[in-house]
């Protein structure tokens, strides 16, 4: 059975990565939009979605207020939150408000797809280790051992859809420095661009 999914996120890289992965997966038909108003418009259109996945911090969302408004117009559409920055209490409150689930952007692509299928079938999803407060930033993955800690930090932010400028500002370095880290990172994991790097991180469960 094919499930119909709407993904709303204002990071183009993340949308491209998810779109590529969903296209490679059987039984998933996904639409993508880049802001909250577009998501609401889609939800109120003719298409019925098995799941609507909203980024917590995208343009126009306003956090949990956006979730409440989306739930009000959802009809038969199930609505879940996705975030790379929201704390545990936000995830818990989202579930209390009636969200179908909370999906950390740190999930591998395989786990994210499993979560999407799980919620689309009527279940509620939230990683127990996230809600219980276990460290989500550690990397217990041998593929990460060949990366410098700074390269890991850059890849984590690239995976979350941040631009070079945003990464530089958050890490307190210059944009050219970020580009140097990316060049080294791409060489080490044998990819050619940001989208491939983000997909690599997802598929190998690096975060």
From TrEMBL:
InterPro entries per UniProt: CheY-like_superfamily, EvgA-like, NreC/VraR/RcsB-like_REC, Sig_transdc_resp-reg_C-effctor, Sig_transdc_resp-reg_receiver, Tscrpt_reg_LuxR_C, WH-like_DNA-bd_sf
Coiled-coil regions listed in the entry: none
SUPFAM superfamilies: C-terminal effector domain of the bipartite response regulators, CheY-like
Pfam assignment, any one: Response_reg
SMART domains tied to this protein: HTH_LUXR, REC
Domain HTH luxR-type: 141-205
Keyword hit for DNA-binding: yes
4-aspartylphosphate carried by residues: 55
Response regulatory domain mapped to chain residues: 4-120
Any one Gene Ontology BP term: phosphorelay signal transduction system
GO MF terms, alphabetically ordered: DNA binding
Keywords: DNA-binding, Phosphoprotein
Stretch forming the signal peptide: none
Name the UniProt record assigns to this protein: DNA-binding response regulator, LuxR family protein
Source organism (scientific name): Rhodovulum sulfidophilum (Rhodobacter sulfidophilus)
